Amino acid sequence: MRDVVEQLQRLGMSGYEAKAYVTLVGAGQPLNGYEVAKRSGVPRSTVYETLGKLVTKGAAYELRGSDDATDYLPLPPRSLLERMRREFTDSIESLEVALPAIVAPPKAYLIHNLKDAGALLDRAEDVVAGARGDLFVSIWPQEMGLLSPLIRRAVERGVETSVMHFGTAREPVGNLYEHRFPAPGGVPEGEGAAKEDPDHRLLVVVGDRREALVGGFAGGTAWGVYTEDPAVVAMAVEYVRQDIALQIVAGRVGHEAMREIWATDPDLRRFLSERDRPAALLRAAGAPGHRPYGSPPPHGAPAPHDHT
């Protein structure tokens, strides 16, 4: 019952309204105000006002008997949910027209810091759900398990989706490319070959080449940034595109041939020797006491100038 009440509140009912409605639904027969208050926990002083609001919203009906007493019946749940769905859809469609008309162009593009895994994944879901043209994602299996339903919905609504997936994908979705070269988990050949550590993972999500989320998970902690800055968005898109291009080339040329090129070319060996750096940055970002740029300073410390 508590979960149902909370969900009804999210859809616009007050706490008392949700409790009264759930009580009426669960009764199976008309109830008067006294009975609703007794069963629901809604105070007797406000129960008739609450029931009146449900009647006004069309979520309940009044039944007047011969003795002029008033009982209440609920609108059947299926009808209520269908009505809420229509009203919600109508409001969204109206706001899609009205809100953009009043948005002022930004004077500066800010970078918003995301402080933990929950905030990071919630914002990633927002970007995926908001995509209408194209979507670029670089992701590991741990996060793919959470985001794949939304990515699949994006594909179903016609979004051109390109996914760079580290490791084997259980259920490929969209244009998905598995990161096989250099192999996640380590490249054994050559001095300085480094691990792409699944405990220190990077997540990149770009929607419509308009907004980008970049974040990382490091040893139980997480950090991230979100921005609509065109320069950052463009770099994030190219990061995913270049990684996908490398996988395509390695697949065409052959991994053995690619390993030989990487092992013998001095410039590529130099880049290979630096492959520890992303994981090191993720570890540093997750270290105790680390404060990402733009986050609040410790209590009592002077605040730096924020140029974001």
Automatic annotation (TrEMBL):
Pfam families xrefs: TrmB (PF01978)
Domain of life: Bacteria
Region Disordered: start-end pairs: 285-308
InterPro entries: TrmB-like, Tscrpt_reg_TrmB_N, WH-like_DNA-bd_sf, WH_DNA-bd_sf
Chain ranges of the Transcription regulator TrmB N-terminal domain: 8-77
Entries under SUPFAM superfamilies matching the protein: Winged helix' DNA-binding domain
PANTHER family the UniProt entry points to: HTH-TYPE TRANSCRIPTIONAL REGULATOR TRMBL2
Protein's name according to its UniProt entry: TrmB family transcriptional regulator
Organism (species): Streptosporangium vulgare
